[in-house]
């Protein structure tokens, strides 16, 4: 058996391209029958350059839920992937709805739709939570995990009332920790103006900058406010901006902790880099990162998981999977951790 076939993988961050009309069918309560948009709008960028660039699976969006499930099973079989964790493409923005009741109903509808129409023994959709109302988010986290079987919940780093280290979210983290489910902060360019990208003029500028800036904002808040210390068994991930940023940014956080930690980071009795190493936090690896080895050496291999990012326009699959399987600079044990073991443990498979 050659190197690229030797390690079965788990996809820690793939995607479905759900349809608003499918979610609307599951609206209940006062929102039942409502046909207003569920995904607050953003800039109309031409991300595919007039359909001249894209991924071989970009036609996902034209498929029904049943057809997407069938295609995902074919992808898993053809690439020796055991399971895939599937994030939303549009519904991550549902929690940004300003009408409290509608946002709660819409999150419930998304989660029910995902559980009913996408989930099976190999595909694991990720739910959404009404983060503007933390008490309702706790209730929905409990319902969706215990009644629907969802194992993870997505939080977009924009559109939040406060940064994720704020104590208003502590009840959500406490319940996620108690139930052993995952909280995943997932990169986005949506509402990029919140992190200053409204001054940029091209899609590439916005996409490159906003994913990173929004994620670092939330990572800073989570780390500086000691979420990993207060909730040591919390499973939290930071996805879709790669992994190579970790050594630089943790080192920068360490510097501020050394100088101002007693005042600004009172829960952090150790340097942020050490807190991260001892946490259950994870980041995704999509391949092609020239300094990935440095990040793994700095943080430890337990914090990295493979992601296909299928079917997004900029994903590197299947080349990234082949590359990681053949990365002889990493030991077979480390490759297996990144491709399989870490995700298996993290998502509770």
Attribute tags:
alpha/beta, 12 helices, 11% strand, 349 residues, TIM Barrel
Brief characterization of the structure:
By secondary structure, this protein is α/β, with parallel strands linked by helices. The chain has a single domain (3-36, 46-346), classed as Metal-dependent hydrolases (TIM Barrel, Alpha-Beta Barrel).
Describe the protein's architecture and organization.
It is globular and about 55 Å long. Strand 4, helix 4 (134-146) and strand 5 form a beta-alpha-beta unit. The chain has a six-stranded parallel sheet. Strands 1-2-3 form a three-stranded parallel sheet. The model has no long low-confidence stretch (mean pLDDT 95). It has a single domain (3-36, 46-346), classed as Alpha-Beta Barrel (TIM Barrel). Helix 3 (100-117) packs parallel to helix 4, helix 4 (134-146) packs parallel to helix 5 (170-179) and helix 6 packs across helix 8 (245-264). By secondary structure, it is of the alpha/beta class. Helix content is 41%, strand content 11%. The chain is built from twelve helices and nine strands.
């Amino acid at each position: 058996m050659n190197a690229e076939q030797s390690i079965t993988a788990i996809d820690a961050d793939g995607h479905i391209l759900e349809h608003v009309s499918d979610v609307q069918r599951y609206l209940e309560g006062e929102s039942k029958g409502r046909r207003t948009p569920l995904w607050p709008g953003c800039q109309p960028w031409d991300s595919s350059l007039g359909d001249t660039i894209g991924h071989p699976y970009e036609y996902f969006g034209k498929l029904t839920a049943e057809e997407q499930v069938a295609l995902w099973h074919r992808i898993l079989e053809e690439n020796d992937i055991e399971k895939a964790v599937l994030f939303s493409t549009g519904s991550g923005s549902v929690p940004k709805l300003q009408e409290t009741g509608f946002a709660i109903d819409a999150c419930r509808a998304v989660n029910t739709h995902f559980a009913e129409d996408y989930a099976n023994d190999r595909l694991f959709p990720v739910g959404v939570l009404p983060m503007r109302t933390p008490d309702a988010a706790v209730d929905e986290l409990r319902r969706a995990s215990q009644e629907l079987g969802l194992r993870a919940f997505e939080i977009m780093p924009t559109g939040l009332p406060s940064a994720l280290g704020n104590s208003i979210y502590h009840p959500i983290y406490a319940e996620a920790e108690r139930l052993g489910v995952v909280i995943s902060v997932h990169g986005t360019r949506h509402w990029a103006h919140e992190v200053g990208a409204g001054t940029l003029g091209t899609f590439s500028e916005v996409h490159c900058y906003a994913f990173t800036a929004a994620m670092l904002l939330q990572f800073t808040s989570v780390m500086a406010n000691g979420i990993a210390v207060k909730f040591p068994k919390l499973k939290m991930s930071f996805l879709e901006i790669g992994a190579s940023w970790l050594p630089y940014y943790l080192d920068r956080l360490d510097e501020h902790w050394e100088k101002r930690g007693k005042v600004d980071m009172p829960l952090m009795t150790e340097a942020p880099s050490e807190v991260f190493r001892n946490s259950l936090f994870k980041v995704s690896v999509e391949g092609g990162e020239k300094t990935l080895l440095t990040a793994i050496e700095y943080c430890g291999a337990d914090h990295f998981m493979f992601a296909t990012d299928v079917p997004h326009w900029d994903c590197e699959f299947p080349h990234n999977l082949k590359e990681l399987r053949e990365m002889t600079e990493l030991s077979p044990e480390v490759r297996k951790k990144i491709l399989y073991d870490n995700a298996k443990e993290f998502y509770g498979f």
